[in-house]
Design a protein that fits this description.
The complex is a heterodimer.
Chain A (H helix, E strand, L loop, with lengths): L1 H9 L1 H36 L6 E5 L14 H9 L4 E16 L2 E2 L3 E6 L7 E6 L6 E5 H7 L6 E5 L1 E2 L6 E2 L2 E11 L8 E5 H8 L7 E6 L5 H11 L3 E5 H11 L1 H32 L1 H9 L4 H38 L16 H28 L2 H9 L1
Chain B lengths: L1 H13 L4 E5 H6 L7 E4 L9 E9 L15 E2 L2 H8 L18 H11 L8 H8 L1 H35 L1 H9 L4 H42 L10 H27 L3 H4 L3
Helix pairs in contact in B: 6-9, 8-9
The chains are: A alpha+beta, B alpha+beta.
C-alpha cells in the first residue's frame, strides 16, 4: 500500500492537477447538496422563528398571496382559539400606506396590522410594541428616513388620483424600530395595531391571515386538521405544508442541483479512474513482479484502491473550504431575487448531508480505483512480465 | 312604461349566463368543453356561486414569470369579474396602445402626471422589470458555468500531461533523430486541439440531446410550451472557441514540460 501511495506522489504535477479537479468537483457537489434543501429549510426556520407553527388564510390562498381577507375576523379568532391545543392566535392584515412629507406622498410602504400582544412578523430592536396611534418601523426605513422611537411619521391610506394629494393622512408616533422577518433587503415596512390598519383601509373586522401557535406537545399537523374542521371557511397551513409548497415552486433548483451534482460525481469518477488507470499501466511491470514473488492479489488490489481513496479524500479536503466559499458567492447571486426575504439563504450547511456528499465522493474514488486495479491483478502474469521486459 | 320595465326584467331573468374563457390545462383537468356551464365564486367571499358558460378554451402565453406558481387561469369580462369579486370600478392595470410614432417613455410620464399614484411602463421597461428573476438565474448559471469550465480545463490539462508523459520515450527518440523542439511542441499542441475539437463536437451533440430531454421533461412537468434549454449557434461557437483555447493552453503547458527536458533524459523511467 505504501508503494502505491509513493507512486501517487512520484508524479506530483499530475496528482496535484487531479486533486484540483476532484476538489472543484467535490465543491460543486457540496454546493448542490446544500442548495437542494437550503432555501426550504431556511424558510422553514423563518416560519417557525416566532413560534407560530400554523397559518390560517382565506380559503385556498397562501399567506399574503392575494388581497383576499378573512371576514368577521374577531369571531373567527375566537373560534380558532377555542380549538384544543391552540396556544395563541396572532392576526395580521396587510396593506399599502403612503408616507407623507409636506403635501406629497412618497413610495408606498408595506403596512401590517398586528396585535401587539402576539405577533409573528418582526422582532423589536429598539423601543417597544406599538400602542394606539403608534407604529413600529423597519430598520431600513428608520435608517433612510432617520426615524427613531419618539419620531413622528405621517401615513396616508390612499392617493387622490387626479390631484396627487394623499388621502386619509394620519400622524403616528414611532414606538420602536424592528427587524421584519419576511422583508427583502432594504424594504420599508411598518406595523400598527390591527384596528388602525382596518380603519385606514376600510376593512373593518377583516384580516389577511392568522398565525396560530400550538400548545407544547401538540402536533401542528393534527391541530391544523382540527382547526379546519371547526372553521371550514378558511385554509389552515402547517409549516410543513407551506414548505412543501415552497419546495414545489423551487423544484427547478432542486432538479438542477441533482443534475449538476450527478455531473460533479461523474467528473470525479472520470478523473480518479483516469489517474489510477494510467498509474497502474505505468506500474504494470512492478505489479507483475510483486505478483511473481508471491504478494497476494488482494494486497495489490488494496494498494490500488488506496490510491483512489487517497486522491478522493485529499480532493474532498480541498473541496470542503472551496465549496463553502463558492456557496457564499452563489448565495449572494441568488439572494438578489426580487422580493425574497433577506433572512433566508439558498445554501444551508447541514453537517449530516455534507458528510454524506463527501462520503459519496470518497466511495466513487475507491470504486474508480478498483476498476483498473482489478484489471492489473487479473491479467495473465506471464504476459504482463513479457510486456514489461519488451 | 310598467310593461317596458316588466319585459326588461323578464329578459334579464332569462338572459343566458355570461361567458368565460378557460385555460386549456384547466379545461383538460376538469374536464370542460365549450358550451359547458360552470359555477364560480370568489374563494374569500361567502357569496352564492354564479353560473358562467365556457365560450372558449385558450392557451396561456409562454410566460416564464408565471411558471413557478403555474396556476390555472380563466378570463372574465371585466364587469362579470367585478360582480364576482364584489368590487366596483377597480382594475389592476391598463394596457395602452400608442399612436404610431409616439414615444412610450413620454406617454408613460404623461400618464403618471395625469393619474397620481399610478406607474406607467413602456413594454421594454416592463419586460426589464419582470425579467429581474431570470437575470438572477442567468447570473447563477454563468457562475456554475465558470466552475464547470475550470473543472474541464483541469481535466483536459491532466489528460494531456498523462498522454505526454506516456510518450516521453517516443518524444526523446524523435528529438534524438533530429526533430526540432518546435515540431514536437506544435505536434503536442495540435493533438490537444484535436482532442478538444472532438470533445467540443461531442459536447455540442450531447448538449442538443440533453436540451431536448430537458425541454421534454419540463414541458410535461409544467404542461407548458416554454423551452428551458436552448442550444443556439452562438453557444455552440462559444463552446468550440473555448474548447480550442483551452486545448491550445493545455497542450502548450504539457508540451513545455517535455521540450525543456534534454532528449537523453526523456527515456528515463
Amino acid at each position: 500500500m505504501a508503494s502505491s501511495l509513493r507512486a501517487l506522489f512520484r508524479r506530483r504535477s499530475r496528482t496535484l492537477l487531479a486533486l484540483a479537479g476532484i476538489g472543484i468537483s467535490a465543491a460543486l457537489l457540496l454546493d448542490m447538496t446544500m442548495l437542494a434543501s437550503g432555501l426550504t429549510e431556511s424558510f422553514g426556520e423563518l416560519l417557525g422563528a416566532k413560534g407560530y407553527a400554523l397559518r390560517v388564510t382565506p380559503k385556498g390562498i397562501l399567506p399574503f398571496d392575494s388581497d383576499a381577507t378573512i371576514r368577521d375576523a374577531a369571531a373567527t379568532a375566537r373560534r380558532i382559539a377555542s380549538v384544543p391545543g391552540v396556544a395563541g392566535v396572532a392576526p395580521a392584515l396587510g396593506a399599502q400606506l403612503y408616507p407623507v412629507t409636506g403635501d406629497s406622498a412618497r413610495e408606498p410602504v408595506f403596512a401590517t396590522g398586528i396585535d401587539p400582544r402576539g405577533q409573528m412578523l418582526y422582532r423589536v430592536l429598539r423601543g417597544r410594541e406599538p400602542g394606539p396611534g403608534e407604529v413600529v418601523v423597519s430598520e431600513p426605513m428608520a435608517r433612510d428616513d432617520r426615524l427613531r422611537p419618539g419620531s413622528v411619521v405621517s401615513l396616508a391610506s390612499g392617493l387622490d388620483v387626479s390631484l396627487g394629494r394623499p388621502r386619509g393622512t394620519r400622524r403616528y408616533v414611532v414606538s420602536g424600530v424592528a427587524e421584519f422577518l419576511y422583508d427583502y433587503a432594504g424594504e420599508h415596512s411598518v406595523a400598527l395595531p390591527l384596528g388602525e390598519v382596518q380603519r385606514a383601509i376600510g376593512r373593518d373586522n377583516q384580516v389577511s391571515l392568522f398565525g396560530v401557535s400550538a400548545a407544547e406537545g401538540v402536533d401542528p399537523g393534527a391541530l391544523a386538521a382540527r382547526i379546519g374542521r371547526v372553521v371550514p371557511e378558511v385554509s389552515v397551513y402547517s409549516t410543513a405544508e407551506l414548505l412543501r409548497e415552497t419546495s414545489r415552486r423551487l423544484s427547478y433548483f432542486r432538479q438542477m442541483a441533482t443534475i449538476l451534482g450527478s455531473v460533479a460525481l461523474t467528473v470525479t469518477a472520470l478523473l480518479v479512474a483516469t489517474i489510477i488507470t494510467i498509474g497502474v499501466r505505468e506500474r504494470f511491470g512492478e505489479i507483475a513482479t510483486l505478483r511473481a514473488i508471491g504478494i497476494a492479489r488482494e494486497r495489490i488490489l488494496l494498494g490500488v484502491v488506496a490510491e483512489g481513496l487517497t486522491l478522493a479524500l485529499l480532493g474532498c479536503a480541498l473541496g470542503l473550504p472551496l465549496g463553502l466559499w463558492m456557496a457564499r458567492r452563489l448565495d449572494r447571486i441568488l439572494l438578489s431575487f426580487p422580493g425574497l426575504p433577506s433572512k433566508v439563504t439558498f445554501f444551508t450547511f447541514d453537517p449530516g448531508r455534507v458528510a454524506f456528499a463527501l462520503a459519496v465522493v470518497v466511495a466513487v474514488g475507491a470504486v474508480a480505483g478498483c476498476v483498473p486495479g482489478l484489471g492489473a491483478v487479473r491479467s495473465p502474469l506471464g504476459q504482463a512480465l513479457r510486456e514489461e521486459a519488451e | 312604461m310598467s310593461l317596458f320595465f316588466g319585459l326588461a326584467l323578464a329578459a334579464a331573468l332569462q338572459a343566458p349566463p355570461p361567458g368565460i374563457l378557460v385555460e386549456r390545462r384547466l379545461a383538460e383537468s376538469v374536464p370542460l368543453r365549450v358550451g359547458d356551464t360552470v359555477r364560480v365564486r370568489a374563494l374569500a367571499s361567502g357569496a352564492t356561486p354564479r353560473p358562467f358558460v365556457v365560450e372558449g378554451v385558450f392557451e396561456r402565453p409562454a410566460d416564464p414569470s408565471r411558471i413557478a406558481r403555474n396556476e390555472y387561469e380563466v378570463r372574465f369580462h371585466l364587469p362579470d369579474l367585478e360582480e364576482v369579486l364584489g368590487t366596483r370600478d377597480r382594475v389592476d392595470r391598463f394596457a395602452v396602445v400608442l399612436s404610431p410614432g409616439a414615444s412610450p417613455d413620454s406617454a408613460a410620464r404623461w400618464i403618471e402626471g395625469l393619474a397620481f399614484g399610478t406607474r406607467a411602463y413602456g413594454s421594454r421597461a416592463l419586460a426589464d422589470r419582470t425579467s429581474a428573476t431570470f437575470r438572477v438565474v442567468s447570473r447563477f448559471h454563468r457562475a456554475i458555468g465558470i466552475v464547470t469550465i475550470l473543472a474541464s480545463a483541469i481535466f483536459l490539462l491532466c489528460v494531456m500531461i498523462i498522454r505526454v508523459d506516456e510518450r516521453k520515450r517516443d518524444m526523446g527518440m524523435l528529438r534524438l533523430v533530429g526533430v526540432s523542439r518546435g515540431t514536437v511542441f506544435r505536434s503536442i499542441v495540435l493533438e490537444a486541439i484535436g482532442i478538444t475539437v472532438a470533445g467540443s463536437a461531442a459536447g455540442a451533440g450531447l448538449g442538443i440531446v440533453i436540451a431536448q430531454v430537458v425541454n421534454a421533461y419540463y414541458a410535461r412537468y409544467y404542461d407548458t410550451t416554454l423551452r428551458f434549454a436552448l442550444v443556439t449557434p452562438r453557444i455552440v461557437v462559444l463552446a468550440a472557441l473555448l474548447g480550442l483555447g483551452l486545448g491550445a493552453v493545455a497542450g502548450a503547458l504539457a508540451a513545455w514540460r517535455v521540450v525543456n527536458v534534454p532528449p537523453q533524459r526523456l527515456g528515463e523511467r
